[in-house]
Amino acid sequence: MAGDEGKHIIKASQPWDDLRQAAVQRLEEQHPALEDLEPGDLHTLVYELSVHKLELQLQNEELRSVHDELERARDRYFTLYERAPVAYLTLTDEGRISSCNRAACDLLKCEKSDIIGTDLHEFIHPAWQDELYKHRRQLYQTSRRQKCEIQVRRPDGQARFVLLESELSDESGSNQSFWYVSMADIDAQKAVEDELSRLNSDLEKRVEARAQQYKESRQEMESILNAVADPIITMDGRGLVESANRSAEKLLGYSLDQLVGHNICLLLSDPDMSNLEQFMHERLSNAVVESRILRCDVTVLNQSGERIPVELGVSQIDHRNKFTAILRDTREKKRLQREVMQVAENERSRISRELHDSLGQELAAMSLSTMGQARTYSGKDDSVASAFSAFSQRLQHAIKQLRTIIFDLAPLDVSDSGLVEALESLARAVSADNSVSCSCHIEAGQAESVIDSEKEIQLLRIAQEAVHNARKHAGAQHIVIALRKTGQNLRLQIIDDGKGISLPSNDRIDGQGIRIMNYRAQLIGAELSVQAYVPHGTLVSCNLPL
Known about the structure:
This protein is α+β, with helices and mostly antiparallel strands. The protein is built from 15 helices and 15 strands.
C-alpha cells in the first residue's frame, strides 16, 4: 500500500480541491467497486482510514519536530559561520563569490553586497595573481585541500597577507560544484617573521664579524706561541723535558706542567728508549756519529695509554747540552698506507682474475687448437705438423708461466683458516710447481691465536712477497717458511737457496718488493730484516712484538 502511495506526489502548494480530487482518485484506484462493498467491509475500510489518518498525523508531527530541529541547527550553523573569526567564502567553479561571512567583510573592508557576485581575483594583489592561479589549478587537479600564503588588496589600496585554504565541495547530484575558501589574516605574523629575519641576519653578521676577529686574534696568538704545527719538545742531556709547544701537549695529552721535569723516555717503548739514549750519549761525548740528527719511527704513549706511532727527529742545539725533539704523528700516514696496500691487493686480485678468465682461457684454447692442427697434418705434411706441435709446446709453456703469475697475484685468505693454515697452503701451492720445493715449519704454540686478523694478513702477504722474490729473482730451488715464538715476539722467516741479495754499503733496502714488505711490517709494528743467508741464499725475517 505504501508502494502505491509513492506513485503519487502531492505538492503542499496545491489547493484543497485538488487535494480532495487526488484523494478520491486514489481511493477509487484502491477500491474500484466501493458501492458493491458489504456493510462489514465498509466498516473495516472506515477503520483502516481512521488508523491511516492517525498515522499521517503522527508522521506529520514528527516531520514538524525534525523540521524545527533542522531550522534551529541551521540557525546555529549560520550564527557560527557568520561570527567566525576567520573569513569564509563560497565560490563557483568560475571563481565568483556566492556567499561570505562577516569576517570576510571585515578583512576585505567591503560590504557583503559588494563582495557577493565578484570574482575572487579582484581582491588579490596583482603581484600575487599567478600564485592564486597556481593554487586553483592545483586544487582542481588533485581535488585535495590546498594552502598558500597570498596578499589581498582592499578598496583603499591597503594590502594584507592571508593564509588561503581551499577545498572542493563533495556534494553529489548538484549541477554545479562549489569552491570553499577560508582566509586567515597573517599580516602581523608576517611582519614579525620579517623582523625576526632581519634581526637574525644582523645577528649573523655580528657573529661572523666577531668570529673573524676571534679567528685573527687566535691565529696571531698561535703564530707567536707555536712556530710550527708539529709537536716540539726541548730537553737537557739527561732527557728531562724543559719545554713543549701546544701541539706536543695535544698529541701526548699532558699539560706543560705535567711534561716539564719528566724524562722523555717515559713516553717511549723500551726499544725506542735505548736508541735515543745511545744517540744522546754519543752526541754529548763528542763521539763520531754517522748523522747529526736521529731519525726513527717510534711509538709514544699518551696520557690515556694510547700507543701513537710517530716519526721522531732528535738533534742537538748548537753543541749545547740540550736537544730538541720533533714528533710527527704518522697515524694518518699509516692509515693511508693500509688503504694503499688494500687497493694494491684488490688490484692484484682483479688482474689475476682477468688473466685467468681472459688471457688464460684464450691461451688454453689456442693450445688445444694447435695440438689439433698438429694431429691433423701428422702424416700429411710433417713440417707443418712439427711447426704446430712446437707452437703448442710454446703455448703450454706460456700457460704455465701465466699460472705462476696468477698464483703470485692472487692473495690467499686468512679469514677462515688462520695464519698457520694459510702459510701451509702457500707452501703446498708453491711445491705444486715441480721446479721449486717449499716446506713450512711452525713452532708458534698459541702465539698465533693472540694476534688480530690484520696482523695475520700482513704477515701472510710478507711471506707471499718473499716467496715470490725467491722464485722470480733469486732462482731458488728450495724455500723454507718458518713461524716461531721467541720470548715475547712472533718471528716469521723465509729462507731460500737462491743467488742471494747484495745490499749497498749503507744497508738501505732497495727494490719495490722489499719496500712493500717493509711497509707491511711497519703497519703492524714489526721489524723487517733482509740479509744474506750462509752458505748461499737470502733470509727474510719479520719480528712482531706480541
